[in-house]
Structures are given as C-alpha cells and as structure tokens.
Amino acid sequence: xxxxxxxxxxxxxxxxxxxxxxxxxxxxxxxxxxxxxxxxxxxxxxxxxxxxxxxxxxxxxxxxxxxxxxxxxxxxxxxxxxxxxxxxxxxxxxxxxxxxxxxxxxxxxxxxxxxxxxxxxxxxxxxxxxxxxxxxxxxxxxxxxxxxxxxxxxxxxxxxxxxxxxxxxxxxxxxxxxxxxxxxxxxxxxxxxxxxxxxxxxxxxxxxxxxxxxxxxxxxxxxxxxxxxxxxxxxxxxxxxxxxxxxxxxxxxxxxxxxxxxxxxxxxxxxxxxxxxxxxxxxxxxxxxxxxxxxxxxxxxxxxxxxxxxxxxxxxxxxxxxxxxxxxxxxxxxxxxxxxxxxxxxxxxxxxxxxxxxxxxxxxxxxxxxxxxxxxxxxxxxxxxxxxxxxxxxxxxxxxxxxxxxxxxxxxxxxxxxxxxxxxxxxxxxxxxxxxxxxxxxxxxxxxxxxxxxxxxxxxxxxxxxxxxxxxxxxxxxxxxxxxxxxxxxxxxxxxxxxxxxxxxxxxxxxxxxxxxxxxxxxxxxxxxxxxxxxxxxxxxxxxxxxxxxxxxxxxxxxxxxxxxxxxxxxxxxxxxxxxxxxxxxxxxxxxxxxxxxxxxxxxxxxxxxxxxxxxxxxxxxxxxxxxxxxxxxxxxxxxxxxxxxxxxxxxxxxxxxxxxxxxxxxxxxxxxxxxxxxxxxxxxxxxxxxxxxxxxxxxxxxxxxxxxxxxxxxxxxxxxxxxxxxxxxxxxxxxxxxxxxxxxxxxxxxxxxxxxxxxxxxxxxxxxxxxxxxxxxxxxxxxxxxxxxxxxxxxxxxxxxxxxxxxxxxxxxxxxxxxxxxxxxxxxxxxxxxxxxxxxxxxxxxxxxxxxxxxxxxxxxxxxxxxxxxxxxxxxxxxxxxxxxxxxxxxxxxxxxxxxxxxxxxxxxxxxxxxxxxxxxxxxxxxxxxxxxxxxxxxxxxxxxxxxxxxxxxxxxxxxxxxxxxxxxxxxxx
Length: 975
Fold this sequence. Notes:
Elements: H1 20-54, H2 58-92, H3 102-114, H4 118-138, H5 141-149, H6 164-198, H7 213-240, E1 245-248, E2 251-255, H8 259-289, H9 293-322, H10 326-344, E3 351-354, H11 364-374, E4 375-376, H12 386-393, E5 399-400, E6 406-412, E7 415-423, E8 425-426, H13 436-442, E9 446-447, E10 449-457, E11 463-468, E12 473-474, E13 482-483, E14 493-495, E15 501-506, E16 509-513, E17 521-522, H14 526-535, H15 540-543, E18 552-554, H16 559-566, E19 571-572, E20 577-581, E21 584-595, E22 604-605, H17 606-609, E23 629-630, E24 632-642, E25 648-652, H18 658-666, H19 679-682, H20 689-702, H21 707-712, E26 717-718, E27 734-738, E28 747-756, E29 764-769, E30 780-784, H22 794-803, H23 805-814, E31 820-823, E32 827-831, E33 834-845, E34 848-860, E35 863-867, H24 870-878, H25 904-926, H26 929-957
Parallel strand pairs: 3-30
Antiparallel strand pairs: 1-2, 4-27, 5-8, 6-7, 7-10, 9-13, 10-11, 11-12, 14-18, 15-16, 17-18, 19-21, 20-21, 21-24, 22-23, 24-25, 26-28, 27-28, 28-29, 29-30, 31-33, 32-33, 33-34, 34-35
Helix pairs in contact: 1-2, 1-14, 2-4, 2-6, 5-6, 5-18, 6-7, 7-8, 8-9, 25-26
C-alpha cells in the first residue's frame, strides 16, 4: 500500500498556479481598479460639465471640449497614419532572402522574435505616436480657434503690407502645422530606416551596396519632404522677422525688423528658400537616378549657405554698414517700432505737455483755496487701514477684510466722494472650531460692506465710516449683504440643504439662514454626489446626512477664478473690487485680450510690468498669467460676479478690438453688448490698474515720437521705487479725484510719477481719466518737467520730510515704546505750475494694534508742514487760512487750540477745550494713545458746548454774527 501520509511517497502539492477562487478575486480586483480609474476620469469631466452648466456657460465647455477632441483625433490620426504607412511601406519594400552575412544572421533572430507580433507591434507604435501627437495638438485649441475665426485689424504692417491679423491669427497656426510636419517627417524617417535595416534594406557592415534601390527611393522621398518643409520654414521666417524680439539699445523687448534684418536676413531667407526647394527636388529625383550623390551635395550646399548667407553675411552688414552710422541706418525702423508700439498698447493718443514744476503765484490765500478745487486729497490709505477696518468692523473672528482695500466713488447729496471700501468676507481660520461641518456647512459666507470717506479721518485718526456695523447700515441703502463669493472665499460650501448656516450674530445671538439662490450644483442626485466625492477627495459628500434635498455645492468662488473659467481666452486683472450696484454687491473684474504677434510692437512680460510694492506683499493682487509675454493689450471686457449668486456677466467694453471680436465669433453669446451695462454699474467702472501699469512702463521709453531721441536714450524715464516701502519695488499708481491743468473740473483719475533713468528728481507726472462713461475716459495726460531745473521726486520729498528737525523729533516721539509709524501713500497733485505732495502718517501701537491717522505731511514750493490734520498742514504751507477750511464741529480740525471769547459761558467752555488740548498734547508726547483719545473726546465736547452757548447768546441778542476770535498762543509740539 502506498503511503498516503505527507512523506516522500505521498501525493505532491500543486504550486505556481493560483486556485480558481484566487483567480476570481484577482480578476474582480482588476475590474474594480479599471472601473475606479474610469470613474475618476468621468468625475473630473462630469463635475466640470455640471459647473459650467450651473453658471450658464456650457457653450464654453462644449466648444473647448469639441475643439480639443477634434484636434486630438485629427492630428493624432494623421501622425499615426504617417508613421504606420512608412513602416508598412518599408516592410513591403524589403529585399528577398539571400545568403546571409553575419549582420543579417544576427538580425534574423529579432525578425523571428517579432514575427508573431508584427501587427500588434505596429498597432502599439502608431497608437503611441498618435496619442502623443494628439495630446500636443489639443493644446493648440486657442491657436485653431483664432485662425478659423480671425477678424481683420484693418491695418497693414509697414514691411510686407499684410493685415495684422496674418501675424496674430494666421502665422501661429501655420507655424504649428509646420512643426507638426517636421515631427511627422522625422518620426517617419526614423521608423522607415529602422524597418529597412531590420529587414535588410539597409546594411552597415555587410559587403556590397549599403541600401537597396527601394530603400534609397523611400528614404530619399522622406528626406525630400523634410527639406521641402525647411523651405516653407525659411519662407515663413521672412514674416517672422516682423514679430522677432531682439536686444537693442538697452532693451531686450525690441520687436520688428532692423536695418540688418531688412537688408541681410530678409534676402538671405529668400535665397535659402530657393536653395531648399532645389535640394528637395534633388532628393525626389533619386526615385529615378537611384543615387545619393546629387541630393547629398545639395543638402551640403544648403547647410553651407545657411552658415554663410544666414549667419556670416548679416554679421558683416551689422559690423561694417550699421555700426559706423547706426543712427541714420536704424532711424526708419525705429519710427516703425515707435508707431506700432504706441498703437498696440493704446498709448498713441497720450498727451505730453511741458510743465514748469514751480509756481509763480504769490497770492497764498488763492493757492490754498485752489487746493480744494484741484483735488479731493485722500488721506485714508486703502493699503494701510485694512487692520483698522478689521479691528473696528470685523465684529466676529470668522470675518476678515482683504489686505488691500479698494477705492471707489459714491454719490451723496448729488456729489461724488472718494470712498475706501471692503467686504466683510468669511475667514475660516477664525471660526470657533474647525471640522468638516463647520468649514463647509455652517460657516459659508461673509456679511456686508464697510466703507469710509477717503478724504478725512475723525479726531482720533479713525476712518469716518459711511457704511458700517453688522448688518451694515449707512449711505449705501438696502442691498443683499451676504457674501458667498469673494477674494478670500477659497473653500467649497454646501448650502440650501437640511443643515442651517450661521448668518450673522448680534446681541440676541446667532442668526441662521438657508441659501435661496440657484447657484452651484445640485447634490440631490447620487451620481453627482459620488462624482464630487471623488473630485474633491471627500467621501463624506457621498454619505453625509447633512446633505439632502435642495443641497447645492458652491466652489470656484473667487471672482478671478469664475471669470477665468468662463472666459479662458482672457487675461484677468489682478485686482477685482466690490461695488453696490442695483441692490446687489457686485465684484467688478477687468479682463484683457492680448497677443504677442503684433508686428513691430515691443513685448513686455505682464508679471514683471505689473509688479509694484503692493504685489510684493500681496500676491493675490498680481496679474493672472504672470509670465505672459505680450505686445498688444486691450481692456476689452468688463466682467461682474454677483457676491450672492455667483452669476458671471461679461460685457464688451472695447467695441473695436479685433481680438475680442475673434473670440466672440468663437464663443457666440458669451459676451453681452456694451449697451447692456446699467447706469448704476457704469458709475463704478474705472480704468484698471494693471493696464495703467503696463502703459506707464512702455511710456517711460515710448513717450518720445522721433527716432533720434529714442536712439540717444536721453529721454528714458523710470517708475520710481516706493519711498514709503522698504521692498525696493515700484511705487503703485493711486486713484484720486483731481483736476489736471487742462481740465475744468475734478475727475476720478489714476496717477503716477516718473523719474529720469538712474536719478531721483521728478521728470514727469502722468494721469489717466479713470471715470467710465465720460468722453475723456482713458485719456492719458503727461506733464513733462524741464530738464534744465531740478524738481524733487518722491524719494527726495520723503527724504526732505525725514531730514527736517521738527518732523524728525515728532516722528521719534511717535515711535516711542511699542508704537510704530507707518507712512501712507505719497500723493502728488499738480497745482498752479507746481507740485503738491501729501502723505498721511499713521501710528500703530500704544495699546492699539491697528494704525490710526495721526499726522499729515504736506510740501509745496519748498515749504513743508507736519500737522495733525490736512487742513492745518495746508494752511501752514500756504501761510493762509483757506476759505473752504471746515470749522470745528463740522468734520474739520478739532485738535487745534481753540479761540477766545468775551461771553463768560463760551469762554469757560473754551478754557475746558484748551485744557483738553493740552492734555492731548502731553499724552501724545508720552505715546499714551488711550489718554490721547479721551482728551480728544473732551475737546470735542467742550467745543460743542462753546458752539451751543454762542448760538444761544446770538439768538437772545438777535444777532447771527459770531464773536471775533483769535488763535490761542499755545501750539502743538510739531508746529
């Protein structure tokens, strides 16, 4: 009997082959893995489709998708066919088997190895190259849409006399086709050569002919196609010279032909084109001659010609013709560059006028009164007071304001006033406890607008709020205050379902709310929930009980994200700003159409050009697509995003822009006509900062209009560094209501200064009318300072402030203890031939962790003042009381020493005011801001009592005249 135990004579264990159960499990796992990957891909596609449908821009999604898919399949198929056909043809043209050399015997092993899998190998190769080519082609969807929808510019370039649309819309597509052709030709040559070698059509070490006639003919035709494409490249290079960038005259952004291009490179490219055509014909001729001799000679001649004609000859022309007389040779081409650059950046109508920089008026009282007529000087700096808004108006830790507030204008009593504005947005970092429900269901939105006058602060240096508290109340009337979409709102929220949201809190406790709008994507559908659970890597979305009937998911919630998503062909401005429009909070977003194919126009890099001292500390304000190099830009679209519903609207702003017209043809119905902009919205549209910064950077060099001055470089300007910021970055432009010398009334403007290259004195002042809807909107005015005199620039003015002994001592007092001085924006205002500089000075510390306006610096005509209020500082600088200076108790200066009176009751109140004033000055010296604040309150109260007592006395006597008053002999330490 055989041993049935586990000994050597027992049955053997089966190893290596898994059991049926294991195979079933592995197969199931494999299927699940494939399904999981497929659903992940589907989730990304499906959630994108749902989002675009929710914002009513599904046509953008479908147009982009179909364009990408069309390019993918067409060019992927073309590449696969090209490579596959040449592999098939090389195999078809293989020579018959013969006595094998050692080389062929070695290759025979490979031939036999792949013989059973030839079809699969061919399919794999062509599929791989097709996928790569298709993916590359699909990324060119913008190029395709611009080519197929291109609109004429109605202008021709000065060299080839072709419409500019050829360079912006056509040439990029032709270059893509050429690049694709080169790739197909090279891959086909490689694939065909390897196939011929594998099957004996090409030999390396075997005796006899190195290639069969069939292989020679096949490869010659492919090389002929490659050389023919090179001929096309030479021809297109001729036109490419009009948009070629090069280093020239201390700038690396020069674009267009120069003398050497027009007289050396251009004829060289034409000659090389002819040589390449002849060389290609010689390659094609091998189909009959069966010899490589002529095409090889032709190809060598083409390479030699490229070196001599395309490289050496232009260098000789540059060295011996241009350099000895560069000014005369380059002048005609510089004029073309000047004209094209000014047109492409919309600065060709910039008005440049001479400005003395010094006033000759001796009537100081008139000058003082002219200040108020010339500018509404903004002493509240939106880039400094955000912590003050935060401290005084945050109300709850889960609200926050942006780092940089915005400047807008609102009308009150029929008069526009510059206003600093910010939204109380959601701040998830400040909620009591972070968890998934709190972060995404309960704390979902901010609440209300906070606004303050830009031209004044109260007696304690705080902003004078025109809209404040929670819910917000003030001058803006009734509007939807909930902010579901904002610059700081970056997390998704799920709203409208069974889970109630925290609306806001007041003395009676928390108020709850449920979202009413139809924004976002409905999560009632389980497929949608599953897709978002995968897309957001959050499985709780799939099964959470907090999601139910009516639940909607809100995401892509910043204004820039939403506009960029619905209009991916636009470049978005770095600073969206809020406005109350028709009872709603609307984010206003400026958007640009750009191209880098405008002939002769010099290029600029948006990220570098729009950088300043603000973007250095607040990256959110930096322009989108920072590394985009462009040489044409238009603020062609004004977009709005509703802060409550998230609704996005695009309005055609530049009705003449051919680039916008092209995109409107590609995406019909996405941009609404300009006439649909409401009057209320128009009142809040403004000239965008990023466009202004691009234009000022170009105007620093291109303000000149003649070639000789441009080439000499004597009139090159630069944007000065911000003197109030240690980052060393450019001074930002400032919004300000002001009147330029040729204007009859103040206009909301955007302003900046220039200094000479490498120096600190002022060379020019520039402003643009920023008020939309006016006839002068977008008009650039430049006041050019004389070169034979020195007018202080921003850095020198700041140094002058800091060097005056009285000012330095006061600054030292303000900096005592834990108090820190912060300088606000240094504003420049042209006034009667001179320049008025105004700078608010803030102090943070002394028990207060937010900045308060404490002093105002003013200088004009060499006179400098450093006083508690703007009115005081202006009065001191001009040595006269302005007729428009506000009296105490009417929003004017309440910190100066009070007058005297013969009325005992009034005099007692004035004495109390003097005591309060002295107490305030003493507290100021000690840096005790709490005591200073109390003293200011006492001062206001005493002045109010004096005013009331005087009014009573006047009424009793029947007189309306106020008693004469003279200033107290006591003065502040700074004065």
